[in-house]
Specification:
By secondary structure, the chain is mainly alpha-helical. The protein is built from seven helices and no strands. It has a domain of 50 residues: Helix Hairpins (Orthogonal Bundle), CATH 1.10.287.
Length: 276
């Protein structure tokens, strides 16, 4: 245990080494306290030196502008050295090999610096993306969760409406047999009324025919005896009326038309003559 504590706490061995358990315990405790204090100091300093999100954005922006400038300078150096190599090799009559080698060396250095700047720019973009992607990811996750909640609520509302409509359809299906029986009964009643209408019309027509026949018969009887009609109300004197009035007797009342039946003779009041 003593060797493990001394090794991990990086205390090491010295000229004076504790031999007792109390001394070794004090040495281990002091080592733990020292390591803890060192860690706290490092954590506090790192926390203080850490940049905030706005400072990180500003730092990334400034680094991006610097890398852009370096990229432009490296590209310009590449073009310049390319032109100088072409000039010293193609446009001169006498080629200076040392100068060509120098420009070729500078050309390679310009290409290397250009590649390095591009690599630094990619690293900066990756770091910037890792910093900004957390906020974007948080916003995207929040939007996705809110969208899912809205869709869930919409689905719940649709399910409720579907359940209501299904219950209405079930109630209508249950009420359908009663409605069918009522409709069938109404159809039967209408059919019976339609069947009874011709018989009623025939009865009414027969009654009308009988009435018309009776009316024609009475009219014919009244027109067949004009003499009797002329005898009515043609008497000027009461005695003439009395003389012309038929006498009621058993012989007169008994006729073949009556079938041999006899009627009582009514008492007739005879008035005396008005003339003196």
């Amino acid at each position: 245990m003593w060797l493990v504590a001394i090794t991990f706490l990086s205390i090491g061995y010295g000229d004076i080494v504790p031999n007792t358990y109390c001394g070794r315990g004090i040495a281990v405790c002091s080592g733990l306290i020292g390591a803890g204090c060192t860690a706290l100091v490092v954590a506090v300093i790192a926390r203080k030196l850490e940049l905030s999100r706005a400072e990180k954005h500003v730092h990334n922006f400034m680094m991006d502008t610097q890398l852009t400038k370096r990229l432009k300078n490296a590209a310009a150096n590449v073009l310049r050295e390319t032109w100088l190599i072409y000039k010293n090799t193609k446009l001169t009559k006498k080629i200076n090999t040392s100068r060509v080698r120098t420009h070729q060396r500078k050309f390679l250095l310009a290409i290397y610096s250009l590649r390095k700047v591009k690599m630094d720019q990619r690293k900066l973009m990756d770091n910037a993306n890792t910093i900004t992607d957390m906020a974007k990811l948080q916003n995207n996750v929040y939007e996705i969760v809110s969208d899912i909640n809205a869709r869930q609520e919409l689905l719940d509302e649709k399910m409720i409406t579907i359940e209501d409509r299904m219950s209405m359809i079930y109630e209508q299906i249950e009420a359908l047999p009663d409605l069918l029986t009522k409709v069938i009964q109404q159809n039967h009643s209408h059919q019976a009324i339609r069947n009874s209408l011709p018989t009623l019309v025939e009865n009414i027509n027969e009654k009308n025919d009988l009435k018309s026949q009776q009316a024609n018969y009475t009219y014919a009887n009244t027109n067949s005896n004009p003499a009797e009609q002329s005898q009515k109300h043609t008497f000027l004197h009461p005695n003439d009326a009395q003389a012309g009035r038929p006498s009621w007797s058993v012989s007169n009342l008994t006729s073949p038309a009556t079938g041999g039946r006899q009627f009582l003779t009514p008492t007739v009041l005879r008035t005396s003559s008005v003339d003196t």
